[in-house]
Write a structure and sequence with these properties.
Elements (H helix, E strand, L loop, with lengths): L1 H63 L3
């Protein structure tokens, strides 16, 4: 009886350690994805700003006509 309980406890501790590792890995993976998404968003915002400025400059040049 005591040996059975000790075996169950040891198994429970192993399960807890495995689950803890899995959760830790899942958290790290999610965090890395979040960081990549934030970086991609920043780059996208920079592209939009550059395109907007390019469009503004082009419109200004068209309004000024040939030089």
């Amino acid at each position: 009886m005591k040996g059975e309980r000790e075996a169950q406890l040891a198994q429970a501790k192993e399960n807890l350690a495995r689950l803890t590792d899995e959760v830790e890995l899942a958290i790290h993976t999610a965090y890395n994805k979040l960081e990549r998404t934030q970086q991609m968003l920043k780059v996208s915002e920079e592209v939009v700003a550059l395109r907007s400025e390019s469009s503004r400059v082009l419109q200004q040049e068209l309004l000024q006509g040939p030089r």
